[in-house]
């Protein structure tokens, strides 16, 4: 059964803003690459970042190893602190527990129910399916504090087992959110922010463009096309896209992504990454995503990532699924406001 474990106090806009700083940390992909384990991992676990949007009975999650923006919450009395991914692509809150016997829990903070005077066990189990395995555990309730908001008797998951890729993630768990606005910094580890209850005008310029949801299941909208210099290179005739802070790249169907990477001058290596010459970045074209009749342009400086091993684009293949995910590569360029009440998404140029 699919359990939606959400912070109910965050569903409605508050009169005052509650801000939560986010830290831009290394993704699991980066950590695996540094350890020389990425090639082996990628072969064993095919890249399928859209998996979490196609679930039947359970909340599926991705094994793209690219979750990297996280913040700190606390659970219990006295509070126990955890770093969590703020994920718009799910609505579950879960953290590792002292009952977890997976290697992924050994290097993360673990919740101890016996040390909280306000904790209560639930009577249900929790199972979230991943491409590389699953997170399983039990449901309980306790006081949860997020960005100055305290929620008593909040239901959350306590993991007993976790998928292996969680070992390489800096965050302890995941917090799915139904309503908020997000600013993701580009090059700095600090400066990113999630705001509950409204927007922070210092993080964007101009006006906010509001786009209605095409499906309220996730933050899904209509995308008209993907163009370069006025030429349609992907999403011909229209397609569906999801704005997701829990995915690092911009992801689309294999054929479209291959064509898009070809247009920007990228070549695919044996791992499936789209490699470019770092010196070519200034001359590479902008890519425009037209959403519900509104054009949002992403320059090469934003869609190409640079590291000690070279440069690669942020356009990733999503297998055969006909769905686009506009992840962190897109959200770093456009401040995103998620409004569950009016069922729309607001986008404005990041400051």
UniProtKB/TrEMBL annotation:
Its EC number is 3.4.23.1. The keyword Signal applies. The keyword Protease applies. GO terms for biological process: digestion; proteolysis. Disulfide bonds join 100-105, 235-239, 278-311. InterPro entries: Aspartic_peptidase_A1, Aspartic_peptidase_AS, Aspartic_peptidase_N, PEPTIDASE_A1, Peptidase_aspartic_dom_sf. PROSITE patterns: ASP_PROTEASE, PEPTIDASE_A1. Shows particularly broad specificity; although bonds involving phenylalanine and leucine are preferred, many others are also cleaved to some extent. This is pepsin A. The gene is PGC.
């Amino acid at each position: 059964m699919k359990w939606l474990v959400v912070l109910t106090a965050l569903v409605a806009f508050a009169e005052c803003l509650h801000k939560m700083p986010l830290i831009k940390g290394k993704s699991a992909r980066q950590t695996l690459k540094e350890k020389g384990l990425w090639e082996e991992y990628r072969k064993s676990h095919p890249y399928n970042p859209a998996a979490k949007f196609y679930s039947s009975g359970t909340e599926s999650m991705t094994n793209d190893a690219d979750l990297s923006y996280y913040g700190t919450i606390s659970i219990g009395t006295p509070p126990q602190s955890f770093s969590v991914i703020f994920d718009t692509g799910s609505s579950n809150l879960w953290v590792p527990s002292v009952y977890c016997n997976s290697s992924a829990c050994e290097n993360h903070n673990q919740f101890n129910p016996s040390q909280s005077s306000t904790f209560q066990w639930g009577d249900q189990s929790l199972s979230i399916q991943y491409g590389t395995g699953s997170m399983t555990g039990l449901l309980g309730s306790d006081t949860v504090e997020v960005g100055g908001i305290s929620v008593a008797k909040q239901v959350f998951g306590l993991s007993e087992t976790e998928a292996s890729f969680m070992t390489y993630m800096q965050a302890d768990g995941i917090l799915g959110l139904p309503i908020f606005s997000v600013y993701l910094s580009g090059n700095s580890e600090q400066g990113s922010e999630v705001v509950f209850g409204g927007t922070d005008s210092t993080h964007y310029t101009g006006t906010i463009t509001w786009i209605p949801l095409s499906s309220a299941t996730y933050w899904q909208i209509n995308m008209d096309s993907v163009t370069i210099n006025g030429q349609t290179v992907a999403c011909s005739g229209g397609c569906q896209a999801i704005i997701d802070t829990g995915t690092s790249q911009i992801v689309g169907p294999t054929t479209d992504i291959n064509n898009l990477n070809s247009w920007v001058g990228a070549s695919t290596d044996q791992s499936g990454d789209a490699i470019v010459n770092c010196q070519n970045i200034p001359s590479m074209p902008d890519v425009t995503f037209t959403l519900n009749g509104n054009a949002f342009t992403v320059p090469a400086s934003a869609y190409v990532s640079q590291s000690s091993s070279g440069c690669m684009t942020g356009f990733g293949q999503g297998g055969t699924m006909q769905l686009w995910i506009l992840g962190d590569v897109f959200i770093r360029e456009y401040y995103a406001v998620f409004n569950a009440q009016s069922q729309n998404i607001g986008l404005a140029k990041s400051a």
